[in-house]
Structure formats: C-alpha cells, structure tokens
Specification:
Blueprint lengths: L2 H41 L18 E2 L18 E4 L5 E3 H8 L17 E3 L2 H8 L2 E3 L10 E3 H10 L7 E3 L7 E3 L8 H50 L1 H19 L4 E4 L5 E2 L4 H13 L7 H6 L13 H6 L1 H4 L4 E4 L8 E5 L15 E6 L3 E3 L12
Antiparallel strand pairs: 1-5, 2-3, 2-4, 5-6, 7-8, 9-11, 9-14, 10-13, 11-12, 12-13
Length: 386
C-alpha cells in the first residue's frame, strides 16, 4: 500500500473522528439547552450576568488557546466549580450537572449511569490547567482592561467600576443607592417620594398587624382569666389542687420577678403601710405595665396594705421590733407610681432566708416616700421554686 493511500486513509479517519465528536457535542448541547435555557437566558442579561454564581465562564472572554477538556459539555463554556464522574471521568460545571440531574440520571456525553454520589472533584492536572487561564472582564467593551484568573473573575465583575449596573450613591444629596447607568435619570424628589410612600404603606400594614395582635391578646387574656377563675374554684374544694396552685403561683411570680432590677431600700422609715384607694389603683397600673402575671394581679394589689403582710410587718410596733432585719430583704424595684413615689416587690422565693414571721407566702408590694434606688448588680439566676 502506497504512502499516499495511507495518508489519505489516516486523514479520512481523523475527519470522521472529528465529525463524530462534533455531532456528539451538538447533540449534548441541544439537550442541555432545553434543560438549562432559563438559566442561560438569565445569565446573559447584562444586569445579572456574572453577578452571581452561574454556569461556566464565558468562552469568548478567555484569552489564548483553550483545551477542549476544559469546556463543559452542557453549557459549552469554561468549567466553573468543576466536578467529574468517577466512572467515565467526564467533567462538568457543578451548577450545570446539578441542573441536568434534576431531569436525567445519565452522563450527558456517553449516556452512562450518573448519580449524585458518582460526582467527585476533578484531577489536579485539570485544576492546574484552569488556574493558568486568563479571562477578560465582561465589561471590557466599557473600558475595563483587567486580565483575571478564573477564581478572581466573579468578585471583580460584581464590583467593577465599568459595570453599568454597579450600585453607586447619588451625588445630588439624597444619599440613595442606584445603578450607575440609571444615575443620570435619577430624580431625587421622585425617588424619595416613592420611598416615603412605600414606608407609609409598610407602617400602615404594621399598625394593622399590631391592632390584630392586640385584639388577639385581649381575647386570650379573657380566656386566661376564665381559666384562672376555674382553677381558683378547684382550689377551694380540693386540698391537692390548692397546694399545686400555690406552687405554680410562686413559680410564676419568680419568673416575672427575675426580670425586675434589684432594689436597695435606704430608708425603711419612709414606708407607706396603709395606702389609700388611689394608690391601690396606681399600684395596679404599675404591676400591669411591668408584666405581673395577670391571675396574680389582684392578689399583689391587695398585698400593698399592712393588713395583708406577714405578722412581723403587720403593725408599726412589729416593724420597729424587727427593724434590724428589714435590710436583709431581697427587694425588686418597680417603675415609680404616677405620683412619683418608689415602689418595690418582696417575693417569697427571694426571701426564703427570712424568719417565718417576716417571710411573705407569695409576695407583697411596698410603697415608699423616698429612699429607694436600683441596685447595680446582676439579677439572681433562675432557681427551683416548686
């Protein structure tokens, strides 16, 4: 066989091989385009292109020769975040193959089985080949002359000064952030008016939501009051329920009290032991404002009078007799009354160290003329009150 014949056959074989590869690539590209069309379309919009992780680096922006092994068979661009099949070793962009495998579980090149577990990182050789590639900024036509490594491309494009969609601050005084290509058409008055209108609409919506929530709270408060009345009725007839109810009340009061600042009473002689009705009303308002458990509100209001205090506090003589022990009380400060008088609560769970004749069963309220200040220290930790 003559050398000319051998050359002709070799050339024909090469042509057939290249022709076959081209047909395969066209077939893969057609299938991939049907699977990925929406993603590719959004990627190619100037406003969104290259601002987010997309499918492959655009081939036209690559500088120099590109090995065909570095081209994704799905998006036909340079591999980005590449992975390969552990079986056939074909490589793809991570985003491309993830999108492909949502519809097909086969390799897009040779149709071999391909599952998510078959995907592995590409070889070091391929990573090195990709790292040597240089890419132009996609805004080169706008004046950017940067040549970048692939790993720098996305971050550069997102903040490129030649990007017409990069966000800049208005230089006319309104301080709003607008795309660079819209800055010339930006109208501060119009934009600020629209911003105010949007915020007013949001405020109206929030007020409506607040009103709805407040109505729900009122309804739930009424339901809770009915439940507490029912429990109170059970306590009066069942000793076991009475004991459990008292323990739950003590726990509720301490959970509430741990959110109140500790108080330092400097002048016990300014204690108001027999408050009048207006003071009772003010105490009720203060307790309600600071979140006192609702079912214990009336009980705590009643216990701002000495008639409801422990035996060691019930009269002036008893208080004088125990005056040296009063500074041992752990007290918690409440917001001042409308009249400006300071007010504290003394909770049973805080004062288990006190003698029995000075220890409140659940809690009591004390009103002072003056001489009460907030103690600058951390609140006591939660304890077991049941």
């Amino acid at each position: 066989m003559s050398p000319l014949t051998l050359f002709a056959r070799s050339d024909a074989s090469t042509f057939r091989s290249e022709n076959y590869k081209n047909r395969v690539f066209r077939k893969v590209s057609l299938e991939a385009s049907s699977v990925l069309s929406s993603t590719k379309e959004s990627r190619n919009r100037i406003g969104n292109r290259n601002h987010i992780s997309s499918m492959g680096f655009d081939l036209p922006y690559i500088v120099g020769h590109v090995d065909e092994e570095l081209i994704c068979p799905i998006c036909a661009d340079i591999l980005e975040d590449p992975v390969q099949s552990c079986g056939c070793e074909h490589a793809y962009c991570r985003a491309c193959i993830d999108k492909w495998m949502q519809q097909k579980q086969i390799c897009p090149v040779d149709r071999s089985d391909l599952l998510p577990g078959h995907l592995v990182p590409v070889s070091r050789l391929m990573r090195n080949m990709l790292s040597r590639l240089k890419i132009k900024c996609s805004f080169a036509e706008n004046g950017c002359s940067q040549l970048l490594a692939l790993e720098e491309y996305r971050s550069h494009v997102a903040g490129c000064e030649h990007n017409p969609k990069v966000v800049v601050e208005c230089n006319k005084g309104c301080g709003m952030k607008v795309p660079k290509d819209e800055l010339a058409r930006h109208n501060c008055v119009f934009e600020l008016r629209e911003l105010v209108q949007n915020q007013m609409a949001e405020i109206a919506e929030l007020k409506e939501t607040q009103a709805t929530q407040e109505l729900r709270i009122v309804i739930q408060r009424r339901e809770l009051e009915l439940l507490q009345y029912y429990i109170a009725a059970l306590r009066s007839t069942n000793p076991v329920m009475r004991n459990i109810g008292e323990q739950l009340d003590r726990y509720s009061l301490m959970q509430w009290g741990n959110g109140l600042p500790l108080a330092n009473v400097r002048t016990w002689g300014s204690l108001i032991s027999t408050p009048d009705t207006p003071m009772h009303v003010m105490v009720r308002d203060v307790l309600r404002t600071c979140g006192c458990p609702m079912h214990l509100l009336n009980l705590m209001v009643d216990r701002c009078h000495e008639d409801r205090w422990p035996d060691g506090l019930i009269t002036l003589d008893a208080r004088r007799e125990n005056h040296h022990r009063l500074n041992q009380y752990v007290t918690r400060i409440l917001p001042p009354l409308v009249s400006g008088k300071p007010c504290v609560v003394v909770l049973g769970g805080d004062n288990t160290h006190m003698p029995e004749n000075l220890r409140p069963t659940l809690g009591l309220v004390m009103i002072f003329v003056d001489g009460v200040e907030e103690m600058l220290q951390e609140p006591l930790p939660d304890g077991e009150y049941i």
